[in-house]
Amino acid sequence: MEINVKNFEETFDVVVRDIQQAEFLAIDAEFTGLTDKNLGLLDTVEERYEKLRTSTNYSLVQFGLAVFFREKEGGYSHRAYNFPVFGGFSRKFSVNTDSLILISESGFSLDDMVKNGIPFLNLDEEEKLRLKIEEWKKQQEAELLQKVTNKIGPSAILFEESEYMNAIFSKVERFLLSPDTRLEIENSSRYQRKLMFEHLRYRYPDLSFESIEGNGSRIFVIEKKPKEEQLKILHEKEKEKLKELEEKVGFSRIVREISKSKKLIMGHNMTLDIIHILHQFISSVPYIYTDFKDMLTETFPRFIDTKVIAAAQPVWDKIQDSSLPTLIETIKRGILPVPNLKEEPSCLPDLQDFLDWNSTI
Q: CA torsion sign, 47 to 49 to 53 to 55?
């Protein structure tokens, strides 16, 4: 099943339920590039990690998740989900042309990813935005409750803006004497709106001020509202901002649910996948390998890499090759046993061989 930004929210609970009920999970990912470092057979674990860590200059752009359920009558059933991911925060986006050609040949569309990719934030990025919302709320509450610590007053009005601001003051005075409850000021510049916010709030603390989107330009809105109502509106705006933040966290919520479930995770040659998943959706991966190990085991305590199993006895004696295409052919020829695996209508055909191999192990 393809899940993108258009249907992510409506399918989120279904995916979470499947994760919670699954016997184990299988993952696969696509990237805009691999590591720029040459990997050597004689690399130490620390050297290999350092080289692979540089791959975080590129991006994980597609995440495949298969959830497997043990059937009462024996065997397994499964469902597969495919998530294109993109955006959520201002960040650099690097591409290796060879990698882009490879994933494009498999049906991946860069244009579709930009338009329909699910946004994401890691924990550090989310915390920065959450703190901004908290600071905004405190400032707004302080101004409403007249607890602003700056006693100096608003900034000075430049000579070229004095005529404009005097006209605004006159408008507001007439507005206060009228039965109207709302005054809209159009065609103001950003700097003029800044002046209005500062000076009108200072002169008329019982009025409400807001800048909203109009027909092609911003409209400065002044309203007569009790402080209690203004505080209520402020709290509603805070809820809206927090909801928008949750939407920006996006696909990271799925990764966090996988981590929370503590379910067994399987994949083939998944070191890069794990590094990118942690870096993009949890937190920046550390420079030191032992710290990375701690981060990994805390986030995903149970995982199996089938490439490692294929390169070990007794499997190695039967195949002599741990690459995925060879393993798929080995399974097709019946050299390795395959448990009963029931098809599900929502499975992605291009992931089927990968899922079959994982279920074997």
A: positive
Alpha-carbon 124 to chain mean position: 11
- Radius of gyration for the chain, computed over Cα atoms and rounded to the nearest angstrom: 28
- CB atoms closer than 10 angstroms to residue 159: 7
Residue 328: name the closest of 301, 299, 361 by CA. 361
On whether the pTM is more than 0.90, the answer is no
**What length does the chain have?**
361
Instruction: Output the furthest CA–CA distance in the chain (Å, rounded).
Output: 92
Q: Which residues in 240-249 are b (16+ Cβ under 10 Å) and which e?
A: ebeeeeeebb
- Alpha helices by DSSP H, listed for the chain, are 8-21, 45-53, 97-105, 110-116, 123-144, 159-177, 190-203, 227-249, 252-261, 271-281, 289-299, 306-310, 315-319, 324-332, 352-360
The C-alpha atoms of residue 103 and residue 120 are separated, in whole angstroms, by 21
* Distances in whole angstroms, Cα of residue 283 to Cα of each of 117, 125, 132, 238, 293: 20, 9, 19, 25, 14
Q: How does pLDDT run across 288-297, given as a tens digit for each residue?
A: 999 999 999 9
Strand order of the β-sheet with 60-70 is 303-305, 264-267, 24-31, 60-70, 76-84, 341-342
pLDDT in tens, 72-122: 888 889 999 999 999 766 677 777 778 878 778 777 777 788 889 999 999
